Amino acid sequence: MKKVIITLTSILSVLAVGVGALFYWEYRSKAQLEAQVEDYLGTCDVKPSHLEVHGRPFILSAMAERAELTYVDVAPQPGMNKDQLLVRELADGKADRVTRFVTFDYPKAGAQPVEDADGAYTDKATIDGKTVKFSGTAGDGRLEVFADGRSFGELPLRKNVTLTSVFANQSGVAAELEYAGPTCALA
User: Fold this and answer.
1) For 138-158, what is each residue's pLDDT tens digit?
2) pTM of the full predicted structure?
């Protein structure tokens, strides 16, 4: 009986050490991926306020030296309330795709986004009982966002940026930008 207890205790101890080592390896792998993303952002002169690496298990991603998806928050500029990058498939200092979402404050407080039949956000919001349509342009090194054709927000941009959509959400008016090329994003 004594040998059985010693054997079971030994097995449980080995399992506990193994599980602990696995958790530590996962934690270190996530830190390695975060460092890889921070290096990429550093070459682009981007200073993140927060970043969140996705793509579990991190161990496999770290072994492949590839960060699958990272959400990067950047300090928003005046007139904006959110600036976020989505960096996809970062490997060897290059990202397959970089998308940026910038959210401008509504032109007036109390605005409510208009949703479509499926509950998705649209390019419209209700402000003071009136429906306002939002649009934007990206060219000549800047993004400009319009409310019913009148400019109300702009942001300097790098070249080779495409504006893919403008939509109203709970936080404000968001513009989705797609960066061409695998290297740097942001100005």
Assistant:
1) 988 899 999 999 999 999 987
2) 0.82
